[in-house]
Amino acid sequence: MAETEQQSGSTPEDEAPEEGASFTFMVPKKEISMVPDMGKWKRSQTVEKLMDLLGTLDRWINETPPVDQPSRFGNKAYRTWFAKLDQEAEALVSVVLPADKRAAAPEIAVYLKESVGNSTRIDYGTGHEAAFAAFLCCLCKVGALRVDDQLAIVFKVFNRYLEVMRKLQKTYRMEPAGSQGVWGLDDFQFLPFIWGSSQFIDHPTLEPRHFVDERVVNEHHQDYMFLECIKFINEMKTGPFAEHSNQLWNISAVPSWSKVNQGLIRMYKAECLEKFPVIQHFKFGSLLSIQPAKP
């Protein structure tokens, strides 16, 4: 996803036909530099169904207000919200699947339920985020989503997922799961920083140093996933950015977005995918198997 490219919208001079071929090659080029550009191309029906699914989860938060309790964090109303998802998950997933793949609903629903946090601890972290990525991966494997829908998957579906998770975190004051505190990248998320930094590669004016400028964040956050993450951090934390988000502060000194992107991918592999406390909770089935890859 580091440099996502689209073929639509190419002009005739971009085309490079190959002799004797019945189709035309064209030089791929970037078309999607910000979220509003998504309207340039057709969205698949499944993406719209996923947006409906996430809209349902959002509506349930409105219907399940926080309860009065002595503890400030971990509002127990979250458990009521989660119980509804636990009960309805298979039905929600079934609607998204092709008719001949509905038998996969119980397996895929597990990843959806794992992606919204832990109902016992009332916490959320990068392991839950990874479960949503696994959920989307399963939908690709059964043909509900196409891999070439990747721009819509990331900047529409995953973005909506982030909105719902932020609402959960704020409404029920969820604890960060396995937070590394000030030395972590972020209390709750990681993937939007990878995908968000890829959005900025080759940007003509905005450089990594700009994301610590609150004016830039407020002006551009609706167009860029990375800046939306920074805005949420600024809303949730007080004090100097360099103190409460030291890792991100250090990243802002990196000279280019491509270097930021590459570094974040390496960091995600080391800090999330290869960390036992995160992966011990990951569930494997037939679609995402733990069996070794065939040579």
From TrEMBL:
- Note whether Acyltransferase occurs among the keywords: no
Q: Does the keyword Nucleotide-binding apply?
A: yes
According to its record, what are the GO cellular component terms? cytoplasm; nucleus; protein phosphatase type 2A complex
GO biological process terms, alphabetically, are:
mitotic spindle organization
Catalytic reactions of this protein: [protein]-peptidylproline (omega=180) = [protein]-peptidylproline (omega=0)
A GO molecular function annotation here is: protein tyrosine phosphatase activator activity
This protein's name = Serine/threonine-protein phosphatase 2A activator
Family according to the record: Belongs to the PTPA-type PPIase family.
The main enzyme category here is isomerase
Q: Which Gene3D superfamilies does UniProt cross-reference here?
A: 1.20.120.1150
Annotated source species: Astatotilapia calliptera
